[in-house]
Amino acid sequence: MDVFLVRHAAKNATLGLSMTWVLLEDDIGDRKKYQIVAYYTLAGGTVTRETLPTNQVLPPYPVPVILLARLAVSENYQGRRLGEKTLVTALRQAVLLSNKGLPSFGVVLDVLDEDALSFYQRFDMFHPFSDNPMRLFVPMQVIQKL
Fold first, then answer.
1. What residues have CB less than 8 Å from 135, skipping those under 6 apart?
2. Spatial separation of the C-alpha atoms in residues 31 and 11, rounded to whole Å
3. Which residues contact 11 (CB under 8 A, 6 or more apart)?
4. What share of the chain is helix, strand, coil (3-state, %, to 5)?
5. pLDDT per position as a tens digit, 19-61
6. Whether the predicted model's global pTM rises above the 0.70 cut
7. 3-state SS class at 40
8. How far apart are CA 117 and CA 45, in angstroms?
9. Please, what sign has the CA dihedral across residues 98, 99, 105, 111?
10. How open is the CA angle 136-83-33, to the nearest 5 degrees?
């Protein structure tokens, strides 16, 4: 099975607040629809500097971040490391967005459950926010090295 990444045209309820990228199955054979393999959604956001797990001196106003709003792999495709690949792709896309006019100090994600938390903890680059261990942060400087 080969897969390829396609930028999904739909934005958050026509408000344009987020963008979703979808990983589709390449070989659809005689079927009329593509199978969704995985997807991720990115959005701009801000956080207070006090909640960021950093010692860096930050301005007194809200700090811009990119929110990894969603990341999922179809149950039919789990166990094939597509979650890891989709995560790396999402983080690289966040760097591109930051470099092209959406300046961001890092990426923030809200973890759905303990299974998802253990998935992200395997990467050893995500840090919990000081006020919520199910909310993670990775600095843009770290992502740029991927």
1. 108, 109, 110, 111, 128, 129
2. 26
3. 17, 18, 19, 20
4. 25, 40, 35
5. 888 888 876 667 667 788 999 999 999 998 888 878 888 888 8
6. yes
7. strand
8. 21
9. positive
10. 130
Which residue has tokens 């990894």? 68
**Long-range contacts of 45-54, Cβ-Cβ distance < 8 Å, separation of 24 or more:** 45/108, 47/108, 47/129, 50/130, 51/129, 51/130, 51/131, 52/105, 52/106, 52/129, 52/130, 52/137, 53/127, 53/128, 53/129, 53/130, 53/137, 54/139
Rounded Cα gap, residues 49 and 64, in angstroms? 10
Instruction: Give the C-alpha separation, 17 to 101, whole Å.
Output: 15
- Answer whether 62's CB lies under 8 Å from 71's CB: no
Question: 31: which 2 tokens?
Answer: 């079927």
Token duo for residue 114: 């303990």
Tell me which amino acid residue 64 is: P
The residues facing 135 across adjacent strands are: 110
pLDDT digits (tens, 9 = 90+) for 83-100: 999 999 999 999 999 999
